[in-house]
Amino acid sequence: MRCGVLDIGSRTVHLKIADLFPGSPPEPVASWKQPVRLADATDRQGVIPRESIRSLVGAVAASAAAASAHHVDRLIPFATSAVRDATNRDAVLDEIEAATGIRVGFMSGEEEARLTFRAVRGWLGWSAGRILLLDIGGGSLEIACGSGTDPALAISLPLGADRLTRHHLPDATPVKKRDVKALRRHVRSVLGQGTAELRTQPAPLSCVATSRTFTQLARLAGTRRPGNGLSAVHTLSRKELVPWVSRLAVKTDGQRAKLRGISASRAHQCLAGAIVAEAVMDVMAVKRLTICPWALREGVLLDHLSRLEEVTDSPEHEVVLVGT
């Protein structure tokens, strides 16, 4: 089966197409994305404005056309926190469907964490043992842990890099020390309350991170290591990351964009991302993370493949898209 995963995120609409064969990993066919910047456009009341809805509709329509051109058998469209948390979410989804014929569903944050964990397990294999997963998105932070294909525990916290930048940091850069300290206090307060059960779980054998935020921070401050005959992998230690929080704070967006690993489109939010990454590594007692290239989209593909293989047909092992 040729499957397309249409991921409507905080910053982009991303279509990933892969061929699925029982007993094999997803075989990539094509990848296409278009910026929409929903998180930047959403106001403090959580409303996605008309102009952004039109841009989103156009991106979904273009993605559907690309999927058709590649003869996709099954298209799985879903929206993450930027749409899920919008106060006009239902109106946005209705407008997409009216214009394109595609009914977009949305996942809970816990389901995002489960599927991303599944992707990490698929990439690392069983030798990784018990895994702790950290994933910083635009609107939320997902954490999951477990020793199986699916996590034993998965949570989602409102600590995404885009969300925190918009709500807790000034528009202008550099950022003053008091603003950095205030954001740190907020992040640690949310983590302290939200991770209590996770911190009672057995210690992981592998600590892993996904997402563009962690990938860019690892390129900025981390280490590149041989990958056991595969391509080299990036790792990020808390010790390497800590000094970069203050360094990023004193730079403008333009100066940040010139740093290794930091893209111009994410320069404004990289400070908030670094603050969350450092704090969650500290709270979860993580000294070093391995960066996994597979994430949510690959998890959706693997979840669908597992059903094709008839490994399980129970509802709790299916992609749960609310609103479809």
User: For the report, how would you describe the main beta sheet?
Assistant: 7 strands, mixed
The poorly predicted ranges are none
What is the helical fraction, as a range of percent?
Answer: 40-55%
- What's the pLDDT, averaged over the residues? 92
Shape: globular
Indicate the structural class: alpha/beta
DSSP strand tally: 12
Strand order in the sheet with the most strands: 8-7-6-9-12-11-10
The radius of gyration over CA amounts to 19 Å
End-to-end distance: 21 Å
Strand content: 15-25%
Number of helices: 12
Name the helix and strand elements from N-terminus to C-terminus, one letter apiece.
EEEHHEHHEHEEEHHEHEEHHHEH
Structure explained in plain terms:
- This protein has 12 helices and 12 strands.
- By secondary structure, the chain is of the alpha/beta class.
- It has a 7-stranded mixed β-sheet with strand order 8-7-6-9-12-11-10, with helices on both faces. A 5-stranded mixed β-sheet has the order 3-2-1-4-5, with helices on both faces.
- Helix 5 (109-124) packs across helix 12 (296-308), helix 6 crosses helix 11 (270-283) and helix 7 (177-194) packs across helix 11.
- The longest helix has 20 residues, at 50-69.
- The model has no long low-confidence stretch (mean pLDDT 92).
